[in-house]
Design goal:
This protein has about 350 residues and is an alpha/beta fold. It contains eight helices and 15 strands.
């Protein structure tokens, strides 16, 4: 039998105001500005969370610039990630949850920051089912350095492990290695003992990626074979691909027998020119990674691992911290591919 969590007597009043990064759209176009909103203006939800940190992802940059594939409802607050403290739990039959007032939680994926107001605000209100209680060894700032990128990278690593790719299997390649997902994937794989090859077009990122554990580097052109060859020379035991398109097709065709490719990105295109040959002649496994609707049990397992056994020793070096006022400049940087690692956003002073 489910029991509703009690509401807090110390919850902030509905007219309490907080800063947020608000994106509006009208006949003049899309624009973002820092403004204040009241708790009463937040969308409905069982948990009211005081946000300590959010983060900036490529999807947030699209939302902040009005991309209809991400956000269709305006005005809007971006931020597909949020971490902070629960300050109120709705006392309703629909709020059955083990999360209590005072708990530190992390929210990633679902509809947060897309058409539901997101984490670039002092407060956010979400369904209880969206939140994961933070492990004691992980604070909100560290959780946002990981964020959706860390969750996605860990899902990719789990996919390789579950399908038999072990450190002894051979070389594992990570594309888009200087980005959030890629850099964390490099670090996780290296920590677990894999020989990691990083693909990046940014020479300045190689120092950090080497510290994270990358052993070799490839240029983007090295994994962009546009020929129609159904199979290429074998090289990799596994791959984490954040790019898609021709890059993904090249990796699949370059896998060793029983190789595994975890695909989680599409910045290089959504069309993948492949034949069935890699799958039926080499037994290659192509695994799609969905971090938005990742099952709750997997989320909890991953956050526990990221806090402890899989925790990256250089986690803090991945982060650039920004205030709300810095969001427009950071959005421009990420859209131009100028961000290395992770950008975390502090929504309050």
């Amino acid at each position: 039998m489910s029991h509703a969590a009690p509401s807090s007597n110390d919850a902030p009043a509905g007219d309490v105001r907080f800063p947020c990064y608000l994106v509006t759209k009208d006949a003049a176009g899309v624009r973002g500005e820092i403004t204040t909103k009241s708790i009463d203006e937040l969308p409905p939800g069982e948990l009211l969370i005081r946000v300590a940190y959010s983060s900036l992802n490529f999807k947030d940059a699209l939302s902040a610039t009005g991309n209809p594939a991400v956000t269709r409802k305006f005005p809007h607050v971006p931020g597909i990630d949020a971490a902070g403290t629960v300050v109120a739990v709705a006392n309703t039959a629909g709020a059955a949850t083990e999360i209590r007032v005072g708990d530190a939680v992390v929210v990633t994926g679902h509809d947060l920051g897309q058409n539901t107001w997101g984490g670039m605000a002092g407060y956010v209100r979400v369904p209880a089912a969206w939140a994961v209680k933070l492990p004691s060894k992980l604070d909100p700032r560290a959780a946002m350095i990981y964020g959706t990128a860390g969750l996605t990278a860990a899902q990719c690593v789990e996919a390789l492990i579950a399908r038999g790719v072990a450190p002894a299997s051979g070389e594992v390649v990570v594309t888009g290695a200087s980005g959030g997902v890629g850099s964390i994937a490099v670090g996780l794989l290296a920590k677990l003992g894999y020989e990691v090859t990083a693909v990046t077009g940014k020479a300045e990122a190689k120092e950090l990626l080497t510290k994270l554990g990358a052993k070799q580097f490839l240029a983007r052109a090295d994994v962009e074979d546009a020929t129609t060859k159904p199979l290429l020379k074998t090289r990799f035991a596994g791959a984490v691909d954040t790019v898609g398109g021709i890059t993904l097709a090249t990796l699949v065709r370059s896998m060793n027998r029983m190789g595994v490719v975890a695909a989680c990105g599409l910045v290089g295109g959504v069309d993948v020119p492949l034949t069935v040959m890699p799958f039926i002649l080499r037994g290659v496994d192509l695994v799609g990674i969905d971090s938005v609707e990742c099952p709750q049990a997997q989320r909890e397992r991953i956050w526990s691992n990221l806090a402890d056994a899989w925790r990256l020793p250089l986690l803090a070096e991945l982060a650039t911290e920004a205030a709300l006022a810095d969001v427009p400049a950071q959005v421009e940087r990420i859209l131009k591919g100028g961000v290395t690692g992770r950008v975390i956003v502090r929504p309050t002073a």
